[in-house]
Structures
1.
Amino acid sequence: MVMRLAFTDRGIGPVVVPLHGFPLSRVMWARQIEALSASYRVIAPDLRGHGESPVPDGVYTMESMADDVVELLDRLGIDDPVALGGLSMGGYVALALALKHPNRVRALMLLDTKAEADSPEAAEGREKSAKAVLEAGHPGSVVEAMIPKLFAEATIKENPGLVDSFRALMEKTSAAGVAGALRGMAVRPDQTGRLGEIQVPSLVIVGEHDAITPPEGARAMAEALPESRFEVIPGAGHLAPCENPEAVNAVILKFLGGLG
Ligand code: MLT
């Protein structure tokens, strides 16, 4: 099924494609789009079921979401490999894309994410959450459960405006979109054994206080990637690019600048 993803396309230069986390949208990359588009062409899609993209029924596998992104690049006539990034669920999709379509990726940026599959308990929890949001008709229960895990404690205390804006952003995601993504994440395969296949330069970024995908796991993932750099972002949690955009932008610009 062709999914015509909504997207932002800004700047001129080598293409950079950031994929957002769950249940967010391309809005989360506002600060990165602003900083990177001075030297790069940033194409930031809304993944299926999120933002302004179509909301199909069913299970959104990471592979199907990766295929949607490739379809968008095809639609834009971009055949040259791109610098692909993803945060959390976006990172699962980026990994799926890099493994399935290696010729489309020249560099990989994995932010606050992991290569492991869900545990059976986690997958069961996702199914319960999917049923609950579908029954309620809105994503409220998932959003409220996520908020305390998404940010560093200091962000919650010192930057309530940012937290509120992300609550509002997540609440815009439809119940069907949330359920589709939860069910897709629940069936994603363990990619740890395949990290060695990724032959392009990669950058692993993690917030110092990330409670969902903590720094130890991110470091192990970086070590398993053949050509990688690992960066911990101070003062940030799971949403490092939004909590400490200056530090994340500096790390990304340095990485991209070194690609030649
Ligand atoms: C995300 O931030 O995209 C999600 O927390 C990922 C997940 O639930 O595994």
2.
Amino acid sequence: MPDIETLLHEKRVFKPSSEFAKRANWSKKTTNEYRKLGAKSPERFWAKMAREYVTWFTPWKQVLRWKPPFARWFVGGKLNVSYNCLDRHLEGENAWRRNKAAILWEGEPGDSRTLTFAELHREVCKFANVLKDLGVKKGDRVALYMPMIPELAIAMLACTRIGAPHSIVFGGFSAEALRDRINDAGARTVVTADGGFRRGKSVLLKAAVDEALTGAPGVENVVVVRRTGDPVAMQSGRDRWWHDVMAEASAKCPPAKLDSEHPLFILYTSGTTGKPKGVLHTTGGYLTHVASTSHAIFDLKEDDTFWCTADIGWVTGHSYVVYGILANGATTVMYEGAPTHPGPDRLWSIVEKYGVTVFYTAPTAIRTFVRLGDEHPKKHDLSSLRLLGTVGEPINPEAWMWYHRVIGGRRCPIVDTWWQTETGGILITPLPAAVNTKPGSATLAFPGIAADVYTEEGVPVRPSDGGFLVLTKPWPGMLRGIWGDPQRYREQYWSKFENIYFAGDGAHRDRQGYFWIMGRIDDVMNISGHRLGTMEVESALVSHEDVAEAAVVGRPDDLTGTAIVAFVTPKGGIRVDGELVGTLRDHVAHQIGAIAKPADIRFTDALPKTRSGKIMRRLLRDIASGRETVGDTTTLEDYSVLARLRESDET
Ligand code: WTA
């Protein structure tokens, strides 16, 4: 892990301003008390969070039942997520929130919509009734393949209202990827739109659904939102327009009283095999985790305007565009399109337009803006901002400093939050009033979270040594399993160290115990903060008729963090040229989605392998990033392969 060296020299420390600290939701004192409680008894700490941040219909009998690696939180408790995000803001002492904005939505073409809590509640109840009328029952999976429009949040909350777990598939994934996910989850209902706007063009979603459904015979109903006005084919008996079914739906729908461990959603994410895994989250623990972290880390206040730029198709959007934010009765901003459309200042114009106060984005976006130049944010009044956050990948200290200086005007604390699809919510993070920050470090574990860095032997590393990031105790937002595959759940997360959660990230801790996350150490790449397995891209490549074999690795990239490099052995007699490169890149986009397109494709007549036939990825990584290969190559099957690969055209 060579980056450890550079980060070890990062000496800058930023203290929370006393002005910020004075008003903070979690003062230094509170945070320290919680830290102590969380260390002594995570269960007592999380029970406190569950009481404070969640409304329960029936109290739990036991905080945690832990039969490693299977956890159950708030056993016996009953609740409803949509009730917590909506109804409780319409009654009692919070009733004044009825007409407060829940969602401030901005479409890419510049159109906008505001939904108050009362309006959102009404739409959610109506769509819950639509789902019921379509025969969706408690426990049935509903696939959502939608652009970033309010109907996506409405559909999610409607699912939670009736206890139908949703499976959201990011709109940038291809029809093939959608089909696999629909089939794996066994969804019988799909909600989509004609399309969505991205960089001034429409992305045709319904057409992709039609293609996906040619191989998904289980799907009985499709509901289609009209967003772009693109012509779509409606299959009678199966497809219905959102506006037609909503026009007839009743706005009365009592929230289902669901068990704390009732499945809330499945979200597919890349792992180390070719097949994405359906990460399963449940109700009570997840909501406790995302609601409490939203309040503590983002310091959400009644008058805040919170904007997380993530697409809801990723876990960040699930937890911190929708559930954690609305559970706090806070206003969330949703933006449909590309961050640089129609101009490089689009995000900053949105910050100014809505008076965004808390802003949460990804390092890859920050690096893009650094490159675009300071003049774009400087054109806008960003003085409403008071807190900034990052998530998705390690942030390099210089990008952190730029964010601090140019966006935060040197006054906003920055929370660098580490977590994963599997963790449900944030686990390692500064608390803005209580923790000094260091550029590039996610700092300390949230109270009640037991994080550590282990050596290969399963003991904590010495300060400053690199190792594996682990969680030594269960936490409420943790995944409960992989949909339909308990074996893979055990193997992937709980078998490297017994009963210890293995995150798949490399990290080290400095002398103050601060965590410095170094990135993935397995065969998962982090492209612009999005996870992709090397195996997934390899499977996509070899599914093309011209390809005999393929190996995929990541190489460092200034903008996207990691770029995909594919080494491809074509079948005999296939002509290798620029056209084949284009064909293969399009093929991968068709199989997975545009985010998976390799940046480089290099052709080779053989891949370097060990005598036992394993591809030597370390060598390929070195070649891909232009580093000289060092280390032991005596197990190489064919020495000449290496030399030829290095010479192979970079196309
Ligand atoms: C990486 C996104 C460094 C990490 C919420 C993790 C980070 C993967 C950070 C999960 C951070 C996320 N610093 N690395 N603050 N946050 N990561 O599942 O490699 O899309 O394992 O969840 O992103 O990506 P996922």
